[in-house]
Amino acid sequence: MVSRDKLVNQQLKIADKARFVDDFDDLSVVGGVDQAFIGRDVVVSVAVVMDYKFNLIGKSVCIDDVSFPYIPGLLAFREAPTAIRALRSLEELPDVVLVDGSGLIHPRGAGMATHIGVKLDLPTVGVTKSLLCGEVVEEPEVVGDRSPVLLDDRVVGYCFLSKKRCNPLYISPGHRVSPETAVDLVNSCLDGYKMPEPIRCADKLADMEKKRFS
């Protein structure tokens, strides 16, 4: 395996290429990416495309062996390659992709959403249920509220309450999206559940594929 130092350097290069400003013309269709593991070393990656009425208009499934170990902070090297293959297998790429993983909320500013976004030069947003790093200014208490996540005095994303009686989400830009717009995009993709619909759909399909091999 490549040394940790070299992998960290790769992440720094990815972070340097990432743009955390809005850089898109139209957002008529939105994508989602999620994954499931069969055992420890086989990953099922599902990419979906939906309209903003949450109709599924495209999907792709990629299953691959994974040799890279689980290392916190380097998760993209384990999971992103298969996710990228799934996205590339779609008939048409979506205008923006919501990724089950961090973006700018990452020690080196290069979480999985950033990794995918830079590799495909595609607008991406990272959505997670746990905070990888940084500090929340104030925990949101009302559905729809957001609070900045700061890392080294920089806003790297937002803590966002998407559903009553649930823990908040942590949303950050991956590539070609600003932190503020990242939250707006996730909010526009909610349909009564904690997670946005494109990720929920990808998660369901990944779980279905996993059960086929169980």
TrEMBL record:
Its EC number is 3.1.21.7. The keyword Nuclease applies. It is found in: Cytoplasm. The record marks 70 as: Interaction with target DNA. The keyword Protease does not apply. Signal peptide: none annotated. GO terms for cellular component: cytoplasm. Mg(2+) binds at residues 34, 100. It is an enzyme of class 3 (hydrolase). Keywords: Cytoplasm, DNA damage, DNA repair, Endonuclease, Hydrolase, Magnesium, Metal-binding, Nuclease. It catalyses: Endonucleolytic cleavage at apurinic or apyrimidinic sites to products with a 5'-phosphate. Belongs to the endonuclease V family. DNA repair enzyme involved in the repair of deaminated bases. Selectively cleaves double-stranded DNA at the second phosphodiester bond 3' to a deoxyinosine leaving behind the intact lesion on the nicked DNA. This is Endonuclease V. The lineage of its organism: Archaea, Methanobacteriati, Methanobacteriota, Methanonatronarchaeia, Methanonatronarchaeales.
